Amino acid sequence: MKVSCNGFTQGKESMRFDNISWYGVDQFAPSIKDPQALYDRLFLSDDERYNDHLNEVTSLVMADAKSLSMKLGRNDKDTLDAFMTMVRDIEIRMSRLRKLVAEAGIVRPTDEVLPRGEYIKLQCDLMIAALQMGITNVTTMMIGPERWNASMLYEGVFDKPVVHHPMSHSQKGEGYAKLQKIDLFHMEKYAYVLSRMKGVKEADGTSLLDNSIVACGVGLGDGAIHQYFDLPLMLAGKAQGTLKHGRHLQCKNGTPISNAWLTIARELGVELDRFSNSTGTISGLMS
Fold this sequence. Notes:
Layout: E1 2-4, E2 22-24, E3 27-28, H1 35-43, H2 48-69, H3 74-104, H4 116-132, E4 140-142, E5 151-152, E6 162-163, H5 173-199, E7 214-217, E8 233-236, H6 258-267
Parallel strand pairs: 1-4
Antiparallel strand pairs: 2-3, 5-6, 7-8
Helix pairs in contact: 1-4, 2-3, 4-5
C-alpha cells in the first residue's frame, strides 16, 4: 500500500519527486494522498448507493449462474461451482470487512482541508487500520512532499505558512533552527505511529509494533548539496524479536541505503540476491 501526505491537488513537479515506491526502474507506484480515496480503496465506500449497486450486481450474478447451471454438462458445472464459491467467499470477506471497520470506529473522512499535522495523522490512522485488519502487510508513506516553492502551515510550529525547501539549503544560523523545528514536527508523527501500533493488540497478546519493522528515513544525506549517500535511517518495532534495539550502527562511508532494505527483505522471507544498487547486507542489524 502506498500513501502520500502531499495535500496539493495539482501537480507542480515531476511524479518522481512525489513518490517513494517503485515497481522497477522508471516504474513508479503512485501513492494515494486523498484520505477519502484511501478509505474507499481500503474499506469500501459507505455510500448507500454504492452498496446497493454492489448487492444488485452480486444478486444478478448469482441468479444468472443458477439459471445457467441447469443447462451445463458436468465439467462446466464444476467450473461454475468453483466460480460461485469464489463469489460467495468475496461476499463473506466483504461482510467481515464491514464488521471490522465498524468495530474499529473508522469513519469515512470528509473533504475538508485539515491542518498539516492532523492530515498526516489521519493518513497514519488509515494506514495502521489497514495493517491491523490484514488488508496489507507492507506499506510506504511519504510524509513531506517535494514542492520547491510552495508554502505550508505547520500548525503549532510557525504562525504563518513557510517554505520548507530553502531551509534545507540554508543550514546555518536561523535557517538551521527553523529546519530543526520542521524535522521535530515530522518526528512527532513517527512517534505517533509507533505509539498507535504499540496499542494495537494481536490475538496472542503481542502488539502490532512487536510484529513489525517501522523504518523512518530521508532521501538526502545533506539537503544543501543534494548528497544522495550516507542517509540516516531509524528502525523501530521488534520484528517478532529479530530486530536489535538501542544501538547506533555506523556503516562504512558510501554504503548504499539499499543494503538496509535488502537485509530487511531477507529477514521477512523475501528471496533476493540484491536490491537496486545494494552491495550486500548489513551485519548486526538483525539477530
